Amino acid sequence: MSVDRLFETRNAFYIGNYQTCITEAQKSATSDDEKATKKIFLYRAYIAQKKMNIVLSEIPEGTKDVALKAIRRLAEYQNSAKRTKVLSEIESELSSPIKDETYMLLTSSVLLDANKPEDALQVLYECTSLECHAATVQALLRMDRVDLAVKELKKMAEIDEDSTQTQLATAWVNLALGREKLKDAYYIFQEQIDRHGATPLLLVGQSTALILQEKFEEAESLLQDAQTRDSNNADAMINMIVVSAQLGQPSEVVNRLIAQMKDSHPSHPWTRSFVEKEEVLNKIAVESTFHSVIDLGQNHQNTMSRGSSAGFDRHITIFSPEGRVYQVEYAFKAINSTNLTAVAVKGVDTACIAVQKRVPDKLIVSDSVTSVFQLTPTIGCAMIGMVPDSKFQVRRAILEATQWRYKHGHNMPAEQLAKRMADLNQFYTQNAEMRSLGCAMMMISFDDEDGPVMYRVDPAGYYRGVKGISLGVKQQPANAFLEKKMKKKSELSKDATIQLAIEALHNALGVDVRAKDLEVVVVSKDQPKFTKLTDDEVENHLNAIANRD
């Protein structure tokens, strides 16, 4: 078996050890092919180090070498002023891409950076090298096609299961799969570090696996190591922004990291996306109130001019003579569309929500069906109503809480979040362009000053603090049961609070419930984080209720 004289050069590049790659590539070559390959990796390593001037000065603009032309174009693409020109050239070549491995790889790299993974796949279609397969995996993951990425990974394993590229691609796929695969991804990066030494690329990969497992302190340590090795590493900065925010660092620390990212990497996809969203949010904040008033006046004028045989305007944003907005009433009726019920109870130092769980099809994985969601580490909610509307509401609540933390430097209080979501719901009733959401929210949290708090937010734009409430198709019998029980029990311990919520739900449904039929979430003084009880814990409470009765 012949020795791969280029292994050290290639491998150093793949793990992000670019200086070693440059050193190895500058050693004497024994053949023209080896010399050409070393030159390609030499220039790619210089580009990775942001030393584009070296590449541009050594590769003439009119070079006829396809590989060197692709390298020069990649270097030019790093200049934001030339991005449009480079992308235009590439797009003109997509109909008949050049069959050269280096061309395919570097062209796909440009297209991925420009957020065009479909075009990148088109370029890579006929490229069969291991590095091309790895680039294909990246493109598929960018498209959220993890299933196809897994298939591509199997092809790589058939070629060389133990290669660095296959191992790193396996780690990328495991990060996308999540859950138990996150540990596997972490250990793959660790194995590469043990074999070849730590690099910013490997350390950032490890930190990503830890962040997804919510091990933020450990991730921070790895990122500090990565930044010691490369203080300007973009991926390390991005992960450090996430970690700093999650660890509750002062807002000026997070803002400083974001400013550094904007200054050092203004053309990075993350920076471009962040700036775009910043501009959109600022525009919405300035214009939303103004446009809502103008649109409401125009809608009223247009609909009133048409008239109605019923003697009043039926437009969805206009009150009937009885003072009713039918669209809002329809939204309240839609809350019962899922035939689910939820009960929330607040005790002395605990707030609990018990939600009926129903899996609509035997072919659906039970764990993928849920009505409870974590909004911040200490705030969570249960959503009852139309599932798409509920998920939209949850995503907006998470966005509002994140923006509050970014602006104020601390977590958003539950009352402020409930008030904000109610304001948004009320805004949806003012314009025909956005209907009222067919869902209602129960929110619980443990506040440092007020202890356990609980709020209901409805489609009409009304929120209120409660100590016991039910939502859903069986809310009337559940509320009646709570009123009766909570008159007798003014103070509830943690276990009593949880058991009262479960008991009220059981009583309202009128059938025996099992642990797998319930979702129970809790916040308490001893455990202020939003926590979902396991099936065994729920079963213990069900047994306690049965024994007491």
TrEMBL record:
Entry keywords, A to Z: Cytoplasm, Cytoplasmic vesicle, ER-Golgi transport, Golgi apparatus, Membrane, Nucleus, Proteasome, Protein transport, Transport
Major localisation: membrane
Subunit structure, interactors included: Oligomeric complex that consists of at least the alpha, beta, beta', gamma, delta, epsilon and zeta subunits.
Gene behind the chain: WBGene00116892
Compartment list: Cytoplasmic vesicle, COPI-coated vesicle membrane; Golgi apparatus membrane; Nucleus
Stated name of the protein: Coatomer subunit epsilon
Gene3D superfamilies, alphabetized: Glutamine Phosphoribosylpyrophosphate, subunit 1, domain 1, Tetratricopeptide repeat domain
Species name: Pristionchus pacificus (Parasitic nematode worm)
Protein task: The proteasome is a multicatalytic proteinase complex which is characterized by its ability to cleave peptides with Arg, Phe, Tyr, Leu, and Glu adjacent to the leaving group at neutral or slightly basic pH. The proteasome has an ATP-dependent proteolytic activity.
GO CC aspect terms: COPI vesicle coat; Golgi membrane; nucleus; proteasome core complex, alpha-subunit complex
Topology of this chain in the membrane: Peripheral membrane protein
